[in-house]
Specification:
This protein is mainly beta and 173 residues long. The chain has helices at residues 2-17, 33-36, and strands at residues 39-49, 54-67, 70-79, 84-93, 99-102, 106-115, 118-129, 132-144, 149-158, 161-171. The protein has one domain: Beta Barrel (Lipocalin), CATH 2.40.128.20. It contains two helices and ten strands. The termini are far apart.
């Protein structure tokens, strides 16, 4: 019973620590998602496990375009272990200014909110690991630095427990 209470308390504290994207509403430059995620982008990143150790490095080439309010992000990943993967996002701006996104390996719909220079993107990813697939929560935070660079920090969790982090740097030519 004490263990259950400790877990509930920890989860409650982590929920309170969650920061809303609105706190960045006055930050510059303002992020226009349809403008920044348009054309070709290159991104480089790392995946760190719970201990902080870098487990994998990767490069992503993104071909992005928008048509009638719907964006397509065709992402091609090259991983440090020699493997390659692909994810194609479909993004739709909602009347309230948020974004909804889908991809083949995303469970349900991703939800994104932009404020100032920041985007908070939340979704569940079906992540293959050693022949099994795990549904993992992603909490992505993207910050526009200037018209060419955006930095992304992603926090991965399952049942409220930290599984690792992804750090990614986007560059427009």
């Amino acid at each position: 019973m004490k263990l259950l209470a400790a877990i509930a308390f920890s989860l409650g504290l982590s929920a309170c620590a969650s920061t809303g994207v609105e706190q960045y509403r006055n930050e510059q430059p303002p992020l226009d998602l349809q403008q920044y995620l348009n054309g070709r982008l290159d991104a480089w990143g790392i995946f760190q496990g719970r201990s902080g150790e870098v487990k994998k490095r990767f490069h992503v080439v993104i071909d992005a375009h928008w048509e009638a309010g719907t964006g397509t992000l065709d992402e091609h990943f090259s991983w440090s272990d020699g493997t390659t993967t692909r994810r194609v996002w479909t993004l739709v701006r909602q009347p309230d200014g948020t974004y909804r996104g889908t991809a083949d390996d995303v469970v349900g719909t991703a939800i994104g909110t932009v404020a100032g220079n920041a985007l908070r993107w939340q979704y569940v990813l079906a992540l293959p690991v050693d022949g099994k697939v795990y549904n993992v929560n992603f909490d992505d935070w993207m910050f526009l630095m200037d018209d060419k660079v955006m930095i992304n920090r992603s926090y991965m969790s399952k049942w409220g427990f930290n599984l690792g982090e992804v750090t990614l740097s986007f560059m427009k030519p």
